[in-house]
Amino acid sequence: MSQRLSQVSGHVSNSYGRGLLAGEVAIITGELNFFWGIGRSTALLFAKEGAKVVISDIDAKRLETVEAEIKAAGGEVLSVAGDVGADDFPKKIVDATVQKWGKINHIVNNAGFTFDKMLHTTPDETFDIIMKIHVRAPFRLIRQAAPYFRLKVSPENRSIINVSSTSGLHGNVGQANYASAKAAVVGLTKTICKEWGPFGVRANTVAFGLIHTRLTASKEAGVTIEIDGKKVALGVPGAQRPVSSTQEPEAYPFIPLRRGGTPEDAAGSVLFLASPLASYVSGHTLEVTGGVGI
Prior knowledge:
One of its GO terms (molecular function) is quinone binding. By secondary structure, this protein is an alpha/beta fold. It has eight helices and nine strands. The strands form two sheets. A seven-stranded parallel β-sheet has the order 3-2-1-4-5-6-9, with helices on both faces. It has a two-stranded antiparallel sheet with strand order 7-8.
């Protein structure tokens, strides 16, 4: 690890082949939207820091676009299209990763969406699909990858990072399903920390506040995704457009930094947890909120 940390202190941020994650292999699921995707920003940043990234999205065309973007910048990338909730998905992506690069260092469980309804109007299927994608899918992917993490002797940097939300920590109106799922993610992560820590594997959660993605954009924009043959509207009713604190200092009075976060902000926090800089951080939930909730 001392050698790893020496690399950290001298890494070149704009040079592929060197960096915080040089030579490591990372699976990153979901949210590859151009300009709006945390998954896209995380994959680009990980590749920039020397990682070989495996990206996945339910939209194959979007996947191709991000793959081309990473390759054009000199990064190494493998695309695996599919629905993270599908029964065959974990084996599909783990097998493809190991066949290509022979190992897995990091899994970032980022795929997800919201399906908001008030608790008293939420049908079973609306609750169940959120639990399936946000809890069951990460659990099944991590379980599938267990043989590549539960290694008796491995000096390599290895971690699991599960994406939660402040909704999971504090609850949120209209999100009984999402808040429940994101709270479960924290418990899952802490359990991995305790079970896999003896193998040198770190497990952490990142809980995002307001990050400007398609999930937090205005619902009136009409963005939808198709889940199990049904169209699900994304976004927040009446959400304001993203503005910087210099443009409108009081646009976000409830956020101490007076702005919402960007996908790049989100990606930076994930990189920290995956990197050797967090070599003694495990079982932690990192709140990335601009100061909200303190």
